[in-house]
Amino acid sequence: MNETTVPGIISAKHIRKLVMVTAYDYSMARLVDQCDIDMVLVGDSLAMVSLGHEDTLSVGMKEMLHHTGAVSRGVQKALVVADMPFMSYQTGVSRAVFNAGRFLKEARAGAVKVEGAAGVTPQIKAMVEAGIPVMGHLGLTPQSIAVFGGFKVQGRGKSGPLILSQARQLEQAGCFSLVLEAVPVELARQITESVSIPTIGIGAGPHCDGQVLVVNDLLGINEQFAPRFVKRYADLSATVRNAVSDYSREVRSGQFPGPEHCYKD
Ligand code: KIV
């Protein structure tokens, strides 16, 4: 078991801010696990970030298990949370529990994450009863973009109280924490103060109990995607382009490989 546990995450509320970041492969997982973070999320953003799909709907159990296994092998300290992909939990309780169990049993995740509230509350209760820790996700839930009509801020005006009551439902169902994505700052504050489980914000302002960012966004690898809530802490696109261009130039000029890169007879 990794050093960070689900009870440890719950007890951090009101004591310290929680930090979560996504990772999709072993090398990145190893790196981020050395950076004082609490949770590594194998997000279904994998579909867009690593696999080039236009949304998260196309990714399935096979890909999510494959990448979660790779991340789990790289992480020793943080809690690994695996996103359950679209249609792996929405269609029934026993299917949801079976699929969630595969993330712990086969991919060695420490918890799963599901999107939504009313339609998935029975599944969440059954997963928790089966011994599977569940993180909820409300607000802009990308698996529902067909209903939302795109990636849009949620919870403005009359829909705010609905999201607040959904948060309470998820807490009652047994979720150990809750992602709030793209909701107004005040609503996120109200939810954070109303539930006993930690809220983890992305585009939800500073009052959440923690924050999550997609690792490619914070490292500046993904140049096409620049929503307001992303802060770039590095410009790895430029670093990668410069390094690979230098390599290309040195190969073409005969500068690489040099004597120090060669085996002697
Ligand atoms: O898939 C993902 O990366 C996520 C985070 C944005 C919370 O769900």
| Poorly predicted tracts of residues | none
Describe the oligomeric state of these chains in a short phrase: single chain
User: Helix and strand succession?
Assistant: HEHEHHEHEHEHHEHEEHH
Main sheet, how many strands, which sense, barrel?
8 strands, parallel, barrel
CATH class of the largest domain: Alpha Beta
Contiguous helical run count? 11
CATH topology of the largest domain: TIM Barrel
* CATH architecture label name of the largest domain: Alpha-Beta Barrel
Binned, the helix content reads 25-40%
Supply the number of structural domains: 2
Residue-averaged pLDDT: 96
> What is the topology, as strand order, of the major beta sheet?
1-2-3-4-5-6-7-8
Q: What small ligands are held by the chains?
A: 3-methyl-2-oxobutanoic acid
CATH homologous superfamily classification of the largest domain: Phosphoenolpyruvate-binding domains
Q: Which shape, going by the Cα principal axes?
A: globular
Give Rg in angstroms: 20 Å
State the separation between the terminal residues, measured CA to CA.
47 Å
Class computed from helices, strands and strand pairing: alpha/beta
Give the strand tally.
8
